[in-house]
Design brief:
The chain has about 220 residues and is α/β, with parallel strands linked by helices. It contains eight helices and ten strands.
Length: about 220
């Protein structure tokens, strides 16, 4: 392996959703940077891979990035993984990638699992043009973002946590209208995977009677 930073997607649920190339990259890395070393440790154990793990997450990336750059410049191979899916997609990674490129360190991103792709395709909403919004701001800037999106004509994709799902859906009704078509995908690739489609009002009625668990992707049709 040429010394570089490898971004390695990991399964979003089903552990079979990992490529042979991803497995080989993890086996050959000098160190694996992990958002949560416990979560990644379980995956590596499942794959039979024993490699040094180092914590790299949103709370320490600014403090550690220059040290990692120095090690890369000395010739180490590093693989960056998130808890699930592709690194740097609503997860830490962007800062390290940017610093690598500034220092002429090669960066290679492997293809692999990303939660919003199956959610978009499963939604039945137009997928030829879409905008990925990730997580909406929790407080500051949230209303501004939603106001801007009122005029968005492309299909919109959002990530959301279970305890904020109802709040987001109710705000979507307020800004986009009760009859706007949408879908909510939950627990993608896992045993209890489900996708609920319909108007925003219909989806709210469905989840109002449920205990909501798991990672969630919301897809909303454009104006």
């Amino acid at each position: 392996m040429i010394p570089k930073l490898y971004l390695v997607p990991t399964p979003i649920g089903n552990l079979e959703d990992i490529t042979l190339r991803a497995i080989n990259t993890l086996k050959n890395a000098d160190v694996i940077l992990a958002e949560d070393t416990r979560t990644s440790g379980h995956l590596l154990k499942h794959l039979g891979i024993t490699k040094p793990l180092q914590s790299y997450h949103i709370h320490n990336e600014h403090q550690t990035v220059q040290k990692l750059i120095a090690r890369l410049l000395k010739g180490e191979n590093m693989a960056l993984v998130s808890d699930a899916g592709t690194p740097a997609i609503s997860d830490p990674g962007f800062l390290l990638v940017r610093e690598c490129l500034k220092n002429n360190i090669e960066v290679e991103c492997l293809p692999g699992p990303t939660a919003f792709v199956p959610a978009l395709v499963n939604s039945g909403l137009p997928s030829d043009r879409f905008t990925f919004e990730g997580f909406l701001p929790h407080k500051k800037g949230r209303q501004t973002r939603l106001t801007e999106l009122k005029e968005e004509e492309r299909t919109m994709i959002f990530y959301e946590s279970p305890h904020r799902l109802m709040k987001s859906l109710e705000q979507f009704v307020e800004y986009f209208g009760a009859d706007r078509q949408a879908s909510v995908s939950r627990e993608l690739t896992k045993v209890y995977e489900e996708t609920i489609r319909g108007t925003l009002t219909e989806i709210i009625a469905y989840f109002a009677e449920k205990t909501i668990k798991g990672e969630i992707v919301i897809v909303v049709s454009g104006k």
